[in-house]
Amino acid sequence: MFEKMNPLECLNLCKSNWYCSFVEIKENFCYLFSEYLGNYLTKSNKKRIYKKVSFRINNDFNCLNINEFMSLSLKKCLKCPPGFKVYSKYSHYCFFELNANYSFPKAKSFCKEIGGYLPIPKSSSERSMLYEIYGSKIFFVDSIITELNEVFKWNDGTKVGGFMVGRPNNFNGNGTLKENVLGLEKGFFNDFPSYLLLSVVCQYN
Q1: pLDDT tens for residues 61-95?
Q2: What is the SS3 string spanning the chain?
Q3: Domain for residue 87, yes or no?
Q4: How many CA atoms lie within 13 A of 38 on its CB side?
Q5: Going by C-beta distance under 8 Å and a sequence separation of 6 or more, which residues neighbour residue 169?
Q6: Terminal-to-terminal C-alpha distance of the chain
Q7: 0.85 cut: is pTM over it?
Q8: In terms of domains, do 102 and 45 share one?
Q9: Which of 3, 81, 88, 167 has CB 3.0 to 4.6 Å from 115, enough for a Cys bridge?
Q10: What is the 3-state secondary structure (H, E, C) of 14-63?
Q11: Domain that holds residue 33
């Protein structure tokens, strides 16, 4: 939520935000929403919601050097850290795939040690991108809960969207929290226990 912003400023703010798909402007307050708001919208005469109909990232720079990516935040080419790889179709990210299976805490710690972090695919396009790159491999993403019935969120406080049908379900929880972290499986999120050993993918951008 952003205060004291005219409608044009609010719409431009959404335009420049990769994850913003919907905007509500109410009494000088600007509210930005992700694509998942579309699942909950109903017709109403009391409020107006604006939808971003198209958005394309324009590269202001051509990264000509090997293994460079175009930073969306800095709008310039940066070198991927050692061991990370950039893919030509997804030139805004660097990824590192470890040839081993780790628990969530160990995977998160490993990514931090090499200068990256567990993936944070907030949008459906990012989930599809990771599925295209890594196929059927299941790997952790950076979201964890500590209490039963807690909502999964990203580290910036936004809610996670894009779950598999019927997930999260805390399988075999029987009234206690068993599946407290998330993994990406075939382009959708599933909940898992943090001690489970899954593939490890680290992201840098």
Answers
A1: 568 888 999 887 787 899 999 999 998 878 888 99
A2: CECCCCHHHHHHHHHCCCCCCEEEEECCEEEEECHHHHHCCCCCCCCCEEECCCCCCCCCCCCCCCCEEEECCCCEEEECCCCCEEECCEEEEEEEEEEEEECHHHHHHHHHHCCCECCCCCCHHHHHHHHHHHCCCCEEEEEECCCCCCCCECCCCCECCCECCCCCCCCCCCCCCCCCEEEEECCEEEEECCCCCEEEEEEEC
A3: no
A4: 13
A5: 179, 191
A6: 25
A7: no
A8: no
A9: 81
A10: HHCCCCCCEEEEECCEEEEECHHHHHCCCCCCCCCEEECCCCCCCCCCCC
A11: 7-51
Cα–Cα distances in angstroms (integers) from residue 182 to residues 135, 141, 178, in the given order: 17, 6, 12
Distance of CA 142 to the CA centre of its chain: 9
Interval 105-122: pLDDT, tens: 999 999 999 999 999 998
Which CATH number do you get for residue 112? Answer: 3.10.100.10
